[in-house]
Amino acid sequence: MNILLAVDGSPYSKAALDAVLERPWPVGSSFKVLTVVEPFHPEYAGWQTAYVPLAVEVQREQMASARGLIDSSAAQLTEKFGAEAVSLEVVEGYIKDRILDIAKHWPADLIVVGSHGRRGFTKFLLGSVSEAIVAHAPCSVEIVKLREHPPVN
């Protein structure tokens, strides 16, 4: 069984990691820990061209930071399931699209993500990654929610 775990460093993705760690999986299961860094858009710099090199450097730093985040999650999975069962990937792109693309091409049997629990106007503005994944995934999806925290509005 191929399990794709998408993490973003939030308490919600930590809950998703914990959910994966807490259960028994079939012998021979493989785990891919994934984090996606949103791309830099030079057009947002507008007329301020001096901003572009700084933003590109910040993008590099975000990719490095994402690597540290994913290493921590992968280490916990490796400790429980072994190094041969765990891979990790840091990619750049639109979060929803990249998770679905990797799930399709890996191929994943299950995608596990945490839900931020956004509602109302915030959900309208930011969208829902978990909702898009459920709607378009090529496999089963598990959405992990935190019960002890109120939803983010």
Written account of the structure:
The protein has helices at residues 11-22, 51-81, 95-105, 120-126, 129-136, and strands spanning 2-6, 30-37, 86-92, 110-114, 140-144. It is globular and about 55 Å long. The protein is built from 5 helices and 5 strands; from the N terminus they run E-H-E-H-E-H-E-H-H-E. The chain has 153 residues and is an alpha/beta fold. Strands 3-2-1-4-5 form a 5-stranded parallel β-sheet, sandwiched between helices. 45% of the residues lie in helices and 20% in strands. Helix 1 runs parallel beside helix 2 (51-81) and helix 3 (95-105) packs parallel to helix 5. Helix 2 (51-81) links the parallel strand 2 (30-37) and strand 3 (86-92). The chain has one domain (2-144): 3-Layer(aba) Sandwich (Rossmann fold).
Give a quick rundown of the structure:
This protein has 153 residues and is an alpha/beta fold. It has helices at residues 11-22, 51-81, 95-105, 120-126, 129-136, and strands at 2-6, 30-37, 86-92, 110-114, 140-144.
